[in-house]
Amino acid sequence: xxxxxxxxxxxxxxxxxxxxxxxxxxxxxxxxxxxxxxxxxxxxxxxxxxxxxxxxxxxxxxxxxxxxxxxxxxxxxxxxxxxxxxxxxxxxxxxxxxxxxxxxxxxxxxxxxxxxxxxxxxxxxxxxxxxxxxxxxxxxxxxxxxxxxxxxxxxxxxxxxxxxxxxxxxxxxxxxxxxxxxxxxxxxxxxxxxxxxxxxxxxxxxxxxxxxxxxxxxxxxxxxxxxxxxxxxxxxxxxxxxxxxxxxxxxxxxxxxxxxxxxxxxxxxxxxxxxxxxxxxxxxxxxxxxxxxxxxxxxxxxxxxxxxxxxxxxxxxxxxxxxx
Amino acid sequence: xxxxxxxxxxxxxxxxxxxxxxxxxxxxxxxxxxxxxxxxxxxxxxxxxxxxxxxxxxxxxxxxxxxxxxxxxxxxxxxxxxxxxxxxxxxxxxxxxxxxxxxxxxxxxxxxxxxxxxxxxxxxxxxxxxxxxxxxxxxxxxxxxxxxxxxxxxxxxxxxxxxxxxxxxxxxxxxxxxxxxxxxxxxxxxxxxxxxxxxxxxxxxxxxxxxxxxxxxxxxxxxxxxxxxxxxxxxxxxxxxxxxxxxxxxxxxxxxxxxxxxxxxxxxxxxxxxxxxxxxxxxxxxxxxxxxxxxxxxxxxxxxxxxxxxxxxxxxxxxxxxxxxxxxxxxxxxxxxxxxxxxxxxxxxxxxxxxxxxxxxxxxxxxxxxxxxxxxxxxxxxxxxxxxxxxxxxxxxxxxxxxxxxxxxxxxxxxxxxxxxxxxxxxxxxxxxxxxxxxxxxxxxxxxxxxxxxxxxxxxxxxxxxxxxxxxxxxxxxxxxxxxxxxxxxxxxxxxxxxxxxxxx
Lengths: 324, 505
Prior knowledge:
The complex is a heterodimer. Chain A is an alpha/beta fold. Helix content of chain A is 40%, strand content 18%. Chain A has helices spanning 2-22, 44-60, 75-83, 141-150, 165-177, 189-197, 210-217, 265-280, 284-290, 300-320; strands at 33-37, 64-68, 90-95, 117-126, 128-133, 156-159, 182-185, 203-207, 221-225, 253-260. In chain A, strand 6, helix 5 (165-177) and strand 7 form a beta-alpha-beta unit. Chain B has one domain. Helix content of chain B is 73%, strand content 1%. Chain B has helices at 2-14, 17-35, 41-52, 57-82, 91-102, 106-141, 144-156, 166-180, 206-226, 244-266, 272-286, 299-314, 316-322, 328-339, 348-351, 353-384, 389-408, 411-429, 435-457, 464-467, 469-494; strands spanning 183-184, 191-192. In chain B, helix 2 (17-35) runs parallel beside helix 4. The chains are: A alpha/beta, B mainly alpha. The interface between A and B is large, with 57 and 54 residues.
């Protein structure tokens, strides 16, 4: 009697362990995967994520569900990812604002450190541009700098908040040129654009996505330079900042897929392969560009290095300006 | 002449059977979303976004837009019947709408709400048709200093939001301003008063606070007072339509609400809730019977409901002409457009005229559908009041709890709502008005942020508010509003014949 029970229990335990171990891993994903987007519903990042999700659903038969977790400049989204089960059913669609928390401002809003996240792949990013209103008197960036030199504290420039990547770009630029331009923070591209169009600021650092592209096409605003490593395809005549007398800008605003560190290797590999495949599809680039996103792909190892490099570069810049 | 062409094109597209169907679906869903407290257009639209991908761009935008302005219609239903706002923008409707329901005029309140919403919405669409580009030009003129002056003017309206003690109203305003300090300061990036909770680093979300202060507290109050003997509102069919006097009293508020609501909606950051508050305050200020507000005066329902619908339409202007979303819901619509390959911008009218005018046309048909949807439904909603409260309140509570979570998928919002529910309950018991808290919570952070931006623009100088025309004008109006009671009294003293009883000389 007693022996029978032990045997029975033993077999059932074995069965349970066996089925568990056989694992959903081979069949990953078995159910919808949640993609954390650390911005409120309707953000442009969400559009890129949904587009990628379309392809992933084609391959896997499971949808990528966007989970909006806005706030604390990526802090809430990042914390959410850190707290989630490392089984690959929750991933983070993050950029450089929340992947190297201890190197940035206000690290206490994060409950994790860089080492707690595993970067899988980079698939896109944000392209910053420096723009003025089309009826502004300056046709090139050096012209603006000249004017600003003669008129300190007269001109105003718009960014997304002190410490943000856009602020880093502008501040580095103006410091290098040695000009005094008043900085004004705005929450988001929309408000930034209005400020420029309404003449409340004279020059702006904004993203080259969606709406702003339309404004450039409609000839309401003019891009003066791009703070990037290469000229943008859609703006072939707009010079890089290092072509007009400034140091090259190396802090790329990447967009990639992240998971908690303990996530199984098989899952990471599945993601890597799937995103690589999506990026390679013939219409992916066109569709991404249409919604205002570039296709910048980096495989796992390269991306890991990239994340560290960008984190350090931000840290150095923030330190240089006395913010940390 | 071009306007006529545009109108014809809009109707041609809007009256296409596919578009009509999706417009109807959107309006129906929107009304439902509006009626259910807690569930808001943002959450429901993002849920439906994937479905909309299967549709053509025009169909999906028409449907999503229908949800958005449909919600502005439905939000007043529970405000009037249960004193619980279905949407944050219907908060003000609770003040007089519920009192009207208590007096047996629930049907009239619901009716004028639907009618006013229709007039406000249609007025808004007409202005969009005719004035989209110039209006966008005005929106762009509003920079930080203009917003500062607008917020200052708005804060003076707090005095018109309560029927009781002015001291208590002002205390609640300060409370709201303090609550508005929670979060991240835009200028310095420093995090304040979040008590270590990352969830508060963006500040208090408005919807859980409103749901708590008005909704949860009301449920708690009712459970305490009349769980067993809930008074049934007796409303006959006759009572479903506003009577002639009520129509007369509503005409002015509706007219003013439409105009003012629309313009406030055009300004990014303005919005439906601000429009409804300002309308209420304005009507009260310029009314011949200010003392009637708060006791069930139809003007206090007609004005705000019209204004919030007009504002919802107005919010489309920055999107359709500039490609800039004025509030998170419009941002979602914009995201939907972008995914469909249509990027809103100044060229939208030229590059996608069918989409542009199709959406505009569907707004006309949408408003018509909504008024025909809402008016007959009134008799059904009124029957809702007959349901024993024992059965009703758990449903309401559940909807509020789920709705609060659905805003940001953040459980903290639910806790915030419950916390403010308790606070609101205590406030109701001790007769402290809740509306000023909400107004201050909206305006306070905007004011501080805009002030910071303005001073950064001016390198620290306050003269920026006096050298620009719009701030100068608005601050002038504010000053006049503040001193007008004093001036009026001085004026009356100089003319002894006008002295009223009780005034000393």
